[in-house]
Design brief:
By secondary structure, this protein is of the alpha/beta class. It has two domains: 189 residues, Pyruvate-ferredoxin oxidoreductase, PFOR, domain III (Pyruvate-ferredoxin Oxidoreductase, domain 3, 3-Layer(aba) Sandwich), CATH 3.40.920; 110 residues, Alpha-Beta Plaits, CATH 3.30.70. Helix 2 links the parallel strand 4 and strand 5.
Length: 334
């Protein structure tokens, strides 16, 4: 196996753009391990992130080189050959495609078509790969990262997918043996279901220049008076860049109004109203979920004793900005 191309230092570089909770950090570790121990390349992985919590920005970096070239760099990758975007909402807040090499490859976790994604992807020449990792993870009861790894191995055809399958077994079999088969199936689905599109325009392609993000919280760059202009985005009712792509959905017919969900919700998202119950008595009854403040932690789904709450994939149609209180339509069951 040979690397398809390298930079001036002899490295092939991959940058994973994600948010906390989607598993990009672990995905980078597994990708580097499979390439180094399985395919025989020199490989290294390192990550950049702030507080370890769901919804916070995460970048994971992977470098590969041939055996005779030692990897001595542990700096953030500014001009990658491959970029993996774990959540399409990152395009709204982060320059995720910054510095992508000419003829580079972008892998995006999305259910949208290439035409729909083209409105915020500006590539003059290269490849765009699309995988609906959220749907796969929801179906197989795993995480997004394993499906993304399957798609990455399809893109990086110099790597052997069997090496990653061995890494999956090694990673999960001791601590979570019950997850081995599900993650292998998720990886295989990601490998098989990814769709790769080649973009070729008449305009001569130019290498995307890297632009380092300007800090908005420095003593010279902060807003006058220390104003925070994007405080959680609850005012705009757009929490898409902090949620992981999953939200709780309420099946009213199964709800026993026990308030276990309300007890664990950190943002008081459950809407209660005083109504007359079946016995003719006044009682506080759960009527819906306010998604203006829901961050998709899914603690309520874990706490629900009657399975009235379940994990569903978030979509553009889920939240209506025209409503004063944003609630998910009640599910009647499948």
């Amino acid at each position: 196996m040979e690397l398809p191309r390298t930079n001036e230092l002899g490295y092939f570089s991959i940058r994973l753009e994600s948010i906390g909770g989607l598993g990009a950090n672990l995905a980078g570790k597994m990708l580097a391990e499979a390439g180094a121990l399985g395919s025989g390349f020199n490989g290294v992985n390192f990550s950049s992130y702030g507080s370890e919590k769901k919804g916070s920005p995460v970048k994971s970096f992977v470098l590969f080189s041939d055996n005779e070239i030692e990897i001595r760099s542990h700096s953030p990758i500014e001009e990658p050959d491959v970029i993996g975007v774990f959540h399409e909402a990152l395009f709204k807040t982060t320059p995720v495609l910054s510095g992508l090499q000419t003829d580079g490859i972008v892998l995006i976790n999305s259910s949208k078509s290439i035409e729909q994604l083209s409105q915020f992807i500006d590539l003059s020449q290269g490849k765009i790969a699309i995988i609906d990792a959220h749907s796969i993870a929801l179906k197989e009861k795993t995480r997004v990262n394993t499906a993304m790894l399957g798609a990455l191995f399809r893109i990086c055809d110099f790597l052997d997918p069997d090496d990653l399958l061995q890494t999956i077994r090694k990673t999960f079999e001791k601590k979570y043996p019950e997850l081995v088969d599900a993650n292998i199936k998720t990886f295989n689905r990601g490998y098989q279901e990814v769709k790769i599109h080649t973009v070729k325009n008449s305009i001569t392609a130019q290498k995307g220049s890297f632009t380092r993000e300007r800090s908005e919280l420095g003593y010279l760059t902060q807003e006058i008076g220390g104003v925070i202009s994007t405080q959680g985005n609850s005012l705009l009712r757009d929490l898409a860049s902090s949620r992981q792509g999953f939200i709780p959905a309420l099946e009213k017919e199964s709800c026993i109004n026990c308030a276990a969900c309300d007890a664990v919700c950190p943002d008081f998202c459950f809407v209660w109203e005083e109504r007359i119950n079946k016995r003719g008595k006044k009682r506080m009854l759960l009527t819906g979920i306010d998604y203006q403040y829901c961050k998709g932690c899914l603690k309520c789904v874990e706490a629900c004793p009657s399975n009235a709450l379940r994990k569903v994939k978030e979509s553009d149609q889920t939240i209506s900005e025209s409503q004063d209180r944003i609630t998910f339509p009640l599910i009647k069951g499948e």
